[in-house]
Design brief:
The protein has helices at 2-57, 62-88, 90-123, 139-167. The protein is mostly helical. The longest helix has 56 residues, at 2-57.
Length: 168
């Protein structure tokens, strides 16, 4: 009786883990496709707008509301510009979106490893992550392998991004 209950609980946990893994991978795929560049646009628009204009235009907490408005406006303009380029110049759009996706993957993978490093340190006690992915003792080989891996991760995300742009 307890064996059947144990097997049932184990199978339920395995099915839930597979469903959770599927949802996490789909969410991270969508985030890598569009979320990273939207975050970068939001961050840098606020970064450059706040000290140069927001401080001079308004006082107090209205500066932050103005920053948020400018960040959202920059994201909307960026999105419309990407759609315009995709409709008007499809070949340039392919190359531009491939580059944007590669930059996003190059930023997201080290960030994800940095977030997961405490979990990795539970299993590998000597693991330390300083922001750089080292795959070989030879620096040039390590850079080559790192960017090849980033390129392999970039291709399916770029295809997903282009298919979503074609749907719109």
């Amino acid at each position: 009786m307890f064996i059947g209950l144990f097997i049932g609980i184990c199978l339920t946990i395995a099915i839930l883990f597979i469903k959770l893994y599927k949802n996490i991978t789909l969410f991270s795929f969508k985030t890598l496709a569009f979320g990273i560049d939207f975050f970068v646009i939001l961050f840098y628009s606020i970064y450059f707008f706040h000290p140069n204009l927001a401080v001079k235009l308004v006082d107090g907490k209205m500066q932050y509301l103005l920053d948020a408005g400018v960040g959202i406006l920059a994201i909307l303009i960026y999105g419309l510009l990407i759609l315009f380029i995709n409709d008007t110049f499809p070949m340039i759009s392919n190359a531009l979106n491939l580059f944007i996706t590669f930059v996003g993957v190059s930023m997201a993978v080290p960030f994800a490893i940095g977030l997961l490093s405490p979990l990795i340190q539970i299993f590998i006690h000597d693991f330390t992550f300083n922001g750089d992915i080292v795959l070989s003792q030879n620096h040039m080989l390590s850079l080559f392998l790192k960017y090849m891996i980033f390129g392999l991760i970039t291709l399916p995300i770029w295809r997903y991004r282009m298919s979503k742009l074609e749907e719109i």
